[in-house]
Amino acid sequence: MEISPDSWILYDWRGWQLNATIVFTWLVMALLVLGSWAITARLSEGETVSRWQVMLEVVVSGIRDQIAEIGADKPGRYLPFIGTLFLFIATSNVLSVVPGYQAPTGSLSTTAALAICVLIAVPLFSIGERGLGGYLRAYLRPTPLMLPFNIVGEISRTIALAVRLYGNVMSGTVIVGILISVAPFFFPVVMQLLGLLTGLIQAYIFAILAMVYIGSASRTRHGSDNPDAPPNPTGD
Q1: In whole angstroms, how far apart are CA 55 and each of 61, 95, 219?
Q2: Which of 90, 119, 187, 194 would disulfide-bridge 158, Cβ 3.0–4.6 Å?
Q3: CB contact set of 12 (below 8 Å; sequence gap of 6+)
Q4: What is the model's pTM?
Q5: Could you give the maximum distance between any two Cα atoms of the chain, in Å?
């Protein structure tokens, strides 16, 4: 049983290896790109719309509402990034019901790459909202002695994001493999159904945590730019 798709080598040429993680990652990206293009190419504003457009509107509206509930003032600003994270992880996990497919999120390299994207997005969004000076000053509060702890905190939560997603997807693969060897006709089917649910939940958790980190950083920078300023309930 192969726990990680990294160990499944599909092509080897003079030391250059193409593993299942790379292939299935590009497969998921291709499906998302082609699917979004096919749906958006026939968008309609009339009374009659396609089922795919309705589904797309429900997904986009749901993600936007979740971002707004976290406390973001401008949900549309974060929607492309958070929505892409959710859809990529959800699609990767849901396709695990296809025979021969292995979710790329079962590879630590993939989950680490996603977590690094979040690590980069946090300062980018924060600097765009509060400015470079406000972002950097937040690392020195409440005292400059907190600088190393704040840096370690940024790195540790990135590692936690990667390990959490990898651990949950990988553990599901291991459990299915064990049940196949014990009862090959019944339990694997049940676990596959549960895997669909847990795969969507993991995508939701990852996207929500990413938005929490981004929103938290933006709000912190907003309040720390001028600690002596009076509160502004309008947020302007």
Answers
A1: 10, 18, 32
A2: 119
A3: 18
A4: 0.80
A5: 67
- Is there a contact between 163 and 111 (Cβ–Cβ < 8 Å)? yes
Q: Can you name the residues that pair with 13 across neighbouring β-strands?
A: 16
> What is the distance between the alpha carbons of residues 78 and 235, in angstroms, rounded to a whole number?
17
pLDDT tens-digit profile of 19-39? 889 999 999 999 999 988 888
State pLDDT tens for residues 32-60: 999 888 888 877 777 777 788 888 889 99
Residues in the chain, pLDDT under 70: 1-3, 172-192, 219-236
End-to-end Cα distance, the chain: 56
Question: How far from chain centre, in Å, is Cα 45?
Answer: 30
Q: What is the Cα–Cα distance from 122 to 220, expressed in whole angstroms?
A: 12
**58-75-161-220 Cα dihedral, nearest 10 degrees:** -160
Secondary structure in 3-state letters for the chain: CCCCHHHCEEEEECCEEEEHHHHHHHHHHHHHHHHHHHHHCCCCCCCCCCHHHHHHHHHHHHHHHHHHHHCCCCHHHHHHHHHHHHHHHHHHHHHHHCCCCCCHHHCHHHHHHHHHHHHHHHHHHHHHHHCHHHHHHHCCCCCHHHHHHHHHHHHHHHHHHHHHHHHHHHHHHHHHHHHHHHCCCCHHHHHHHHHHHHHHHHHHHHHHHHHHHHHHHHHHHHHHCCCCCCCCCCCC
